[in-house]
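A quick aside before the break. I want you to see a complete sequence-to-structure record at least once, exactly as it would be stored in a machine-readable document. Don't worry about memorizing anything.
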Amino acid sequence: MTTALDVIVEYKDYGLTAMLFTVFATPIAAAIAKRFGVLDHPDQKLKPHAQPTPYLGGAAICLGWSAALIFAMVSHPEEVDWRVVCPIMFGGIAMSILGLFDDLRDIAPKLRLAIGALVIIIVMLLTGAGQELAASFLQYLHLHPSRIVLVPISFILGLFIVLGACNSTNLIDGLDGLCPGVTAIISIGFFVLATHLAVVEHSREDNATRLVLSVAMLGATLGFLPFNFNPAKIFMGDAGSVLLGFNCGVMILLFDERGQMRWMLAGLMVFALPILDTALAIIRRWRSGHSIFVGDRSHFYDQLVDRGMSVRKVVFISYALAALFAMLGCSSIFEFMRLRYSIVLYAFVMLSIAYAVHKSGMIQAAASDADFKSPPPDSPPANEGE
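That is the input. The structure line, written in tokens, reads:
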């Protein structure tokens, strides 16, 4: 019988591969960025870092992530289905390239959204990921429409989840070390869920895919984090944050591979911190009369910094919150935690957080310049913002 330790031993090399490739590629990416002037210049508003900082960290993350997936497909072709992993890998590379072009040329939001949606739809078609989403939801309402209805709804839901994940990780990339550290914790949560499903043989087909995707993201983010931690030597930019969000979104779809809403909801809970930050930013921008596509300082981490906390303290608080959500999501692996109990627990946590955010004044409409404060003078420099 396979145990969790057996799974860790078997898949650790893929995580190490991603980490080593990223560690070696990141300084090279920084050097190339400096050589060709691919730098993020401070403006003391959304970009309050101390000096021009190289981009292209996302390219190093993409290289490490891709190397781990290729290694997995080559070394264990009988377990890791290339017909599923290859489309996901090329889709991730495409999303990373799209993010890189946005870093360099500022692509119009609607065009970027359309291209990203096209990539995600192609990946869903080729892999079958998310095609049971509608059935998973509707079966608990005792509704059983035909596949002609279920498939389009599933694609819409899946597209919304993956695009939302890409946007959420992009938005949370606002302080040094925040996005790679949070997504590393999220990937640990995903790996725990995937390991449990592999041990209980939930699905012989997609167990390996889930495990490889989660451990590859873990290795790539851990390899990049030392270079991005405050004060950052390099930024990942959209090329990295969008790729990480794409990986997370696809993982959430894969947890619904057998129409088991329990595991998909667990994946969403593991990913809850970026979701909540995005929701907070959208609500605050709406209440302030600003476009949701325009960057500002509405995020929870910006507000904590504006209230006097150092960047490092805010980042560590974010890590703790991400770990809390990961543990809540992973609580689904316990036999006594049935779906209805999980839903009650998740709902209670979310309502409690919403109440705390409201009481703290974080959703108050901002004054005209309140969203553009720089960190306090004694605070280490922050990352590039959005």
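Two observations worth writing down. Residues 4-372 form one domain. The longest strand covers residues 39-40. We'll return to this after the break.
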